[in-house]
């Protein structure tokens, strides 16, 4: 009953979000009439039921009503559903010779709006359903949960809640704690009782949602096909298009901000430099100058004595490659760091081709030996202004953990992951998580 009610409420909210998307799209289209000679569009599009039917069926086909994806995975599926629905609708209108009766720009705006309002609407309704326990699914854990595994059960969006008794709906197996024979017995016993079973593959550093799954019926086995998608020429082109299009389109905004910050710095310190150039390791280990706003005082001769007086700071630096209370940072520099505006000039590095908007951390030359075997993999791609390591805790993450995160990002790269990281970066900057 709870499952049926959840699906029903999700479907109702989806339809409401579709209607809202149509309303907003028509409103925007009407505004455009004031800036050009466009055909008049009215709100009759709300009754265009083909939009609702195609989008709803596509969402159902992709399993968004039956499977418990996390927010970003489900948002990806919603975007795919909206794109395919738009293609199907345009094709249907063309085949039926009805395309001239509908505004293509309005239909495009409708499906574009759905990419935003459907995920938001679903997040709101799932939050409410979780609070009322309708969306909750009881999970029993066998084995010891790692910190990474525990994070799975802290989200209202998936709705999983941990229980200790035998009244559970889902069984989660921490597969690292059991042998293959024990795992088979546990799974067989629970499939007989028709319980859902969750487990993380032993090779948990790979994103199997991007793998191709082959069924080999005769051998009674499945094959996972994995590849480094970031090495594909097509994907490299897509990533470059994303870098240059976002950087150039936003140039009027960030260019003005850089100019204002530079003027402020010159007023406070007329003789000081505006930019701080530091040699960093780029693609294939090529050295480039990474641009940042200068956030420290020019004269740092006092640091040697300061480190003698503060040995704890030196130990902290050896782990995190930063100081807790860095005396070299200026007042303006502190503000730039807290808001991450000190990294804004790196957009020039993106336009030069040295960096990407999203990528691994731009490592220092002195860190190459410390990177060990991970250097070959990480340095095979351009470093980024932001990256998975920044939205996963930023400066609180140790150096070794950064290497693991950067390696995971490169192995499991996708254009959608880059888009998610860009969105999450905005939230991190606004919350100032880990900034200093």
Automatic annotation (TrEMBL):
One of its GO terms (molecular function) is transferase activity. It holds the Pfam family Bac_transf. The keyword Transmembrane helix applies. It is found in: Cell membrane. Keywords: Cell membrane, Membrane, Transferase, Transmembrane, Transmembrane helix. Residues 239-430 form the Bacterial sugar transferase domain. The chain crosses the membrane at residues 7-32, 44-65, 77-95, 107-130, 241-263. Belongs to the bacterial sugar transferase family. This is Sugar transferase.
